[in-house]
Structures are given as structure tokens and as C-alpha cells.
Amino acid sequence: MRRINSVLDSSVEGNRITPEEAVQLFEQADLLDLAAAADRLRERRHPDNVISYIIDRNINYTNVCKEFCTFCAFYRVKGDPEAYVLPEHVIYKKIEETIALGGTGILMQGGVHPDLKIDYYERLLSGIKERFSIHCHCFSPPEILNIARVSKMTVPETFKRLKAAGLDSMPGGGGEILDDEIRNEISPLKCKTDEWLMVHREAHRLGLRTTATMMIGVGETIHHRIRHLQRLRDLQDETGGFTAFIPWTFQSEHTELEQRHLPEVTAAEYLRLLALSRIYLDNFANVQVSWLTVGLKVGQVGLRFGVNDMGSIMIEENVISAAGARNRANDSELRRVIEDAGFTARQRTTLYERYVN
Fold it and tell me: Which end of the chain has the lower number of beta carbons within 10 A, N or C?
């Protein structure tokens, strides 16, 4: 196996690293050497010294879910006193508030509801588009699969109808760790790795761009994480449909998984993964830091670990917050964090285009 510095130098020159080399870098490379290599790759792809961010809102239209994931504190079973499906007028009000704050998009996700069929989602999307000029980045792969199943439709048919109703792109929720050994342990009822990838593939075939995520700290090893990255890299080679990669840390509060007392992901470990993601995912234009889970200070440091995007100001977020994430920032705070790190802050759209007011 090549020496660490040789692997890093080769990656900076634009050569792909292997899964074995990725494990070697994660376990043995000096943290600052890893950061320097990732930062050079970020600078090569984004030479304008800009860190982008978006003003949008995460609207969780329902908390009813039938997946029972051990890492989730947000879901409620059907019939629970706290279970809800937001009325459409409430969703419209949230969008009005988002636009008033300069928002350009909504990220709308919910639980995997056992009863909501395609007509509900078509009515919701078309109602939004009739009233607002806003990007609808909605419904993660598990939700898409569920809509297709309860509506007795194929995934491509489901996407075609949702796109016609107003769906603009799809978030990468439900990715967690793309390895069924881990998925069977933490979310046995949720879609499997190949199903998650298939949904993205079908979205890309129809021209819908999507994001990719990874949740770390649920008992996985570095080998599971690298297999996750490899599957994303392979699909991106095939379709080119991913806009960004967003890794974040598991938040354990009030979850079933909390009882297992898993070791918490340290800031250094998260930063190491950020850098490795930029190096390994050489076909991804954008890598986003999850300041919502790691905090603004670590998020700011992450800007020198290959990151080019700070994500959203998070006008609203309920899923991760339910599990203990309490970090918040407004537009001016996020810009200050970016600029204090030596970058130019620039608002973007959901599809990572420059926002022009």
C-alpha cells in the first residue's frame, strides 16, 4: 500500500483513491495534512473563494411514520395524540414567512405515512405552485417508495406525476449508512441500500437533481462509511444527478438508540470525514458542512476541510432538533461565520446556482 503522503499528493493531482487507501487516510493521515489536501481540491473546483449558503425552510408536513427507526425521536405512530398532518393553510403560511425572510426554497419531508397516496402529494405541490414562486425540494427516497407502494404505482410513474405537480428536486434523506448490515440493525423496516440508490437513479433519469447524505455515529465502522461513499461515487459516475454531499452526526437524545450508549462522534472525527469525503467523492461538485449537528464553531473549521457550502440558515427544523440538536443561526450570523474564516459568503439556490435577487 502506498505511503500516506503519496496517496494525498496523488489525490490532489486528480487521481482517484481506492477504498483501501481511504481507510488508510482516515486511520493514519495527519489531520492537518488531510485538511490541506481537501482544501486544495475544494479550491481547484471552486477557485472564487466563495462559501455558499441558502435561505430555505424545512417543513415537516407529517410526523406519522411506520418505519420505527431506532435513531429517530421525531416520529409518532398513527393514532398517537401527538401525531399530525399539517393542514395546507399552515404549510402556505410557513412558505409566506420563508419568502418574507428572503427564502428561495422549501425542503419538505415527513414521516413515512401509511395512508397518504399520490393524490395528496399532487394536491399539496400544485397548491404551493399556484400560490408561490418557490423551489420545492421534497420527499426523501423512503417517502417516494411509500407513495409508490400505497398508490400501486412504479417509482418512475410516481416521479412523473409529482414532477408534473411541482416537484423540482429530491433531498437525500433516509440515507443514513448505505450498508445493509447497519441498516438492518438501526432501521430494519426502512428501504435497503439498493432501493435508496434506485430511487435516486430514477429521479436522475427524469432530470430531477438530488442530494446525498450520510449519518455517522450509529455503530458503523470506517469500512461501512467508505462503502457508503463508494456507492455514491458509482451512482454519480452513472448519472451525474447529485448536486451535493452532506454528512452529519447522529443526535441521540430521546431516541431508542440512545440506550446503547454509542461513542459520540468527536469534532476531529467529523472533520476527518469531511476531508475524506471531498477527496473520495471526486465527482461531486459540492460538499456541505452540517453546522446544525456539529455547531457553528466546528462548522466554521470545516470550511478548511474541503467544504464549499454552509447549508441553510434553518428557519425551521424539527427532526434532528427532536433528538437534541439546538444550534441556530440567521442570515447575518451565517455570513459572519463564513467571512471570519476568510471566505466570501454568497447566497445560492437549491440547485447550487448563484442567487440573483
Answer: C
